[in-house]
Amino acid sequence: MTQDKVYVAGHLGMVGSAIVRALAARGTGNLVTRTHAQLDLVDQAAVRAFFAAERPTRVVLAAAKVGGIHANDTFPADFIYRNLMIEANVIDAAFRAGVGKLLFLGSSCIYPRLAPQPMREDALLTGPLEPTNEPYAIAKIAGIKLCESYNRQYGVDYRSVMPTNLYGPGDNYHPENSHVIPALIRRFHEAKANARPAVTVWGTGTPLREFLHVDDLAAACLHVMDLDRGTYQRHTQPMLGHVNVGSGAEISIRDLAALVARTVGYAGEIVFDATRPDGTPRKLMDSSRIAALGWRPTIGLEQGLRQTYAAFLQAAAAQASTGTQT
Asked: What does the entry list as the binding residues for NADP(+) (predicted)?
């Protein structure tokens, strides 16, 4: 991949920036990126013009509108529309520009709410989705099917990886619209700084979740992209393209909250608000396919949380020095 011209869509996001770091570390010098201000991926004409001008040979589609339970439940139209348009525009424009290999980043929420655990790739479309993020999940399923359909009709090599819940440097720490780990880090950090006696966490604390450090995901993405087509297809048929990427370990939200509190150094009480939604009861990915393809994660949750909190503090210090806010 070092000789390819690689376009990373969404390079400023948590996943995209991790992939850019991984590509740079291996010596990929011909990287193409665009900010949202430079290229709105919802604008079909602009996306087609970009691909026609740049002619990348490989594409990593990490751009997406993302958020936690509150954001998904509050802005369902935004989540389904923007993600559908981004996927359709980028995948079709890539094909029109002659891109032979593309990697699409999906999400574990594509699987049914009550899918058998751990969730296998063939659980897709076998039952109802989690209502709180159904619009986002449907958009991500559409992205998978776009890749599969272009592969079947045109013989291109467009692959999809389905990461479990991610965390790490570059995450979104918005007080209402973030995912669980950044939300907990911010909440405990602020409680510690303000000597608050208790922190309230949404839900009962009983749901089980699996987490993967974003740098592990980036390594998995490059591994999948590098595989020869025959090897990849032998391990993904009959699904025609998507592979789970997870850590294989799960933890309850209650235990996660306690672990984040220890990482931050917060010693107050943790209160669970059972009137708030829990989301899916359990989400554990079956990552045996990518393991068979030769990849395994290397960053444990405790180590990853320490690194993530250090990055949070560094970003907060930098923002404080410029007068901006997280």
From this structure: 10-16, 105-108, 140, 163-166, 179
> Are 210 and 248 within 8 A, CB to CB?
yes
Task: Please name which of 34, 53, 44 lies closest in space to residue 87, comparing C-alpha atoms.
Answer: 44
Taking each helix axis from N to C end, the angle separating 180-193 and 301-322, rounded to the nearest 10 degrees, works out to 60
Q: Please identify which residue in the block is written with the tokens 């004409």.
A: 45
106 is in an annotated binding site: yes
- Tokens 């997280």 sit on residue: 326
Q: Is 300 annotated as a binding residue?
A: no
Given this model, what pLDDT does residue 326 score? 52
Whether 61 shows a pLDDT value over 60: the answer reads: yes
- Compute CA distances 230 → 45, 197, 326, whole Å: 34, 58, 45
Looking at the chain, the whole-number percentage of residues with pLDDT higher than 90 is 78
Q: pLDDT grade, residue 239 (50/70/90)?
A: very low
Task: Give strand pairing partners of 159.
Answer: 103
Q: Is 14 annotated as a binding residue?
A: yes
pLDDT at 324 (0 to 100) = 61
Instruction: Report, as an integer, the average pLDDT of 268-281.
Output: 90
pLDDT of residue 190: 96
The tokens describing 91, both together, are 């995948």
For the chain, the residue count is: 326
Q: Is 154 a catalytic residue?
A: no
The residue from 7, 81, 111, 136 that is catalytic is 136
* 259: its two tokens: 């672990």
Among the listed residues 230, 84, 91, 210, the one whose alpha carbon sits nearest the alpha carbon of residue 160: 91
